[in-house]
Amino acid sequence: STTTLTTPQNEVESLMHEMADESGLDLNMELPQGQTGSVGTSVASAEQDELSQRLAKLRDQV
Amino acid sequence: MAARAKRPEDVGSKEYDDSGELIRSHHKQAFEYISVALRIDEDDKAHKEQAVQWYKKGISELEKGIAIEIMGQGEKCERAKRLQAKMTTNLIMAKDRLELLAKVPSAS
To answer: Which of A24, A61, B54, B81 has the smallest CB count inside 10 Å?
Structure first.
């Protein structure tokens, strides 16, 4: 049957997240290599933002 | 004949795969160093000159991360470029801070 092949990916994903939420699972922990890379970069960006904020606060202090 | 250096196309595709990861590893190191520097710097009672060394280490990691060339296109590359842009901002800010700390006679 072709039904499984034509199921939109976003539907599958939202269903997976729904199931994960219900069971309290963290989907990110199970992401394949390619995905962890982009998650890692997002985390890294957030960490850089944190540094910017802290550096900005210090800017005019001695 | 001895094995020759990798042909450019091999190296190119390898760099394409790894540049994001490499940038992240420099980011991580820089983040740790600058976090230490900030913890010292944010404490009014601390000796600020102790922060200087950590800022310098962090700055050198940021520079290494920013120097990595990102090849190719796509979402992955865009993310890596955005990360580099943020690292550049922090590089400038950390250098400014370092300059300021260097001018201040160490108040103890």
So the answer is: A24
How far apart, in whole angstroms, are the C-alpha atoms of residue B51 and residue B56?
Answer: 9
A30-49: per-residue pLDDT in tens? Answer: 545 555 677 888 899 999 99
Domain spans of chain A, in order of start: 1-30, 33-62
Q: Average pLDDT for consecutive 10-residue bins of chain B (108 residues)?
A: 48 59 96 97 90 97 97 89 97 96 68
Q: Are A58 and B38 in contact (CB under 8 A)?
A: yes
Q: Distance, in angstroms, between A54 CA and closest chain B CA?
A: 7
Tell if the CB–CB gap between A38 and B79 is shorter than 8 Å. yes
Number of domains making up chain B: 1
Is B15 in contact with B75 (CB distance < 8 Å)?
no
Residue B8 is assigned to a structural domain of this protein: no
